[in-house]
Automatic annotation (TrEMBL):
<keyword id="KW-0812">Transmembrane</keyword>
<feature type="transmembrane region" description="Helical">
    <location>
        <begin position="374"/>
        <end position="394"/>
    </location>
</feature>
<keyword id="KW-0813">Transport</keyword>
<keyword id="KW-0472">Membrane</keyword>
<keyword id="KW-1133">Transmembrane helix</keyword>
<feature type="transmembrane region" description="Helical">
    <location>
        <begin position="189"/>
        <end position="208"/>
    </location>
</feature>
<protein>
    <recommendedName>
        <fullName>Amino acid transporter</fullName>
    </recommendedName>
</protein>
<dbReference type="Pfam" id="PF13520">
    <property type="entry name" value="AA_permease_2"/>
</dbReference>
<feature type="transmembrane region" description="Helical">
    <location>
        <begin position="400"/>
        <end position="424"/>
    </location>
</feature>
<dbReference type="InterPro" id="IPR002293">
    <property type="entry name" value="AA/rel_permease1"/>
</dbReference>
<dbReference type="GO" id="GO:0016020">
    <property type="term" value="C:membrane"/>
</dbReference>
<feature type="transmembrane region" description="Helical">
    <location>
        <begin position="272"/>
        <end position="294"/>
    </location>
</feature>
<feature type="transmembrane region" description="Helical">
    <location>
        <begin position="35"/>
        <end position="54"/>
    </location>
</feature>
<feature type="transmembrane region" description="Helical">
    <location>
        <begin position="436"/>
        <end position="464"/>
    </location>
</feature>
<dbReference type="GO" id="GO:0022857">
    <property type="term" value="F:transmembrane transporter activity"/>
</dbReference>
<feature type="transmembrane region" description="Helical">
    <location>
        <begin position="157"/>
        <end position="177"/>
    </location>
</feature>
<feature type="transmembrane region" description="Helical">
    <location>
        <begin position="234"/>
        <end position="251"/>
    </location>
</feature>
Amino acid sequence: MTSHTPHNAHKYGQTSAQKVSLDEYLGPARLQPKLGFWSVTALGVVTTSTWLAYVQSLAPALVGGGIVAMLWGYVLVVVMGAFTVLSLAECAGIWATAGAQVDWVYMLSPPAWAPCLSYTNGWLAVFGMGLLGLGGEAIAARAILSMAQLSHPDYTILPWHISIMGVLVAIITAIYGILGARMLDKTNLACFCVFVPLALALMITLLVEGSGNYNSADFALTSFNNATGWTNDVIPFLSGLATAAFAVIAFDSVAHMSEELETPARDTPRAMVLAFLANNILALAIIFAIVFTITTDLSDLALSPSGFPILDIVYNSTGSIVGTCFLISPLTILWLQCTADINISTSRSIYAFARSDAFPGARFFSVINTKLDVPVRAVLAVIAVQIPLLWVNVGSSNAFTAFITMPAEALYLSYGLPSFLMLVRGRKLGLDKDSAFRLGPILGPICNLIASVWSVCLTVFLILPPTYPVTAQNMK
């Protein structure tokens, strides 16, 4: 084993923000390149898995806005997300490091503020990615148990069932993250090759089964459902953006893997943008198929006993338990890969944070197992936090729900800060000119500005109480 710590000149608080090369920043010891452009793009697609995440967490949108929130809320989040991912990609084209937004903020900040701002942003990134993985484990557990419930109607899903299954998923992701690191490129490429056909299969199934009984354009495009108790429709719509926000985040997952690329400055930003486009084109196609074929009352669908609306949508369309499980099973396998990729990206973020002496137990967690070429301790740190949190669901489902809805707020704030700093300082210093993915003097500031404002606005939207009257239980 060897400890990956940065040169003293680059530890937090010991240097001013400046332009440095990747070699200068990382020093002689680092993770070895093992990913190519297409494999890291596939990892970005699978990690974000926008359409998978969206169809598996529809409840907030169905309750708070119905079709309008589900479709047009998604479009709003994607358009704003496009400006955000472009803004971050430009930064990744300058500093392609595992720390991603942590290092970007450090390099872009005024020297006196660099340690404080980068440290804060680092915790937002680690916190957000860690809880995103927690949400992934819970959704994977719910998917598996929902199929069991559909096959055995007498079975009731209890909170502790989800916790146990979630723990099993977390352990599987850690084993894969440690022992399967050298297969990361192949497994993600394989999943991507399944990802697209599966999305098309789901879309075609919904359209074929609903043939002759499609919803009207008026219902599919403008139907609004407010089952929240709020007398106005604005707050439900804004809180209903949680579904889209959860599905669209994790742009930074590719950036955290950048040190494992042969040509990181060139490939990282391109992979970020391409993964974003591929994910959201597929997601938009599937959402259109759902809104034109959905047959169940939206309020009933949101309150489904399975807690897994897409299973009910597919079952109502096909009328077949076997057919539904046949379609949902590969979705669940892909979701397991997605969750594993999220946790792997989180481990790289922890490793980079520790390498900069900014994480508790930095010397311990910045160690890389040279035989496996994996920061094993950082991988285990991820599930060491997630496993106890999975058991919160047994004591309080509301508290657990609060945990798994927080990643969007934390991650969007971590995206907004480097975008803001690039706008107000980075461009004045000419740092954008060093990017392998330069946005230019017009598009660049526009993306930075919109990404900065959107990160704050969305955070406010997502903490609005989803139902009324507001109580200690439903307040986020």
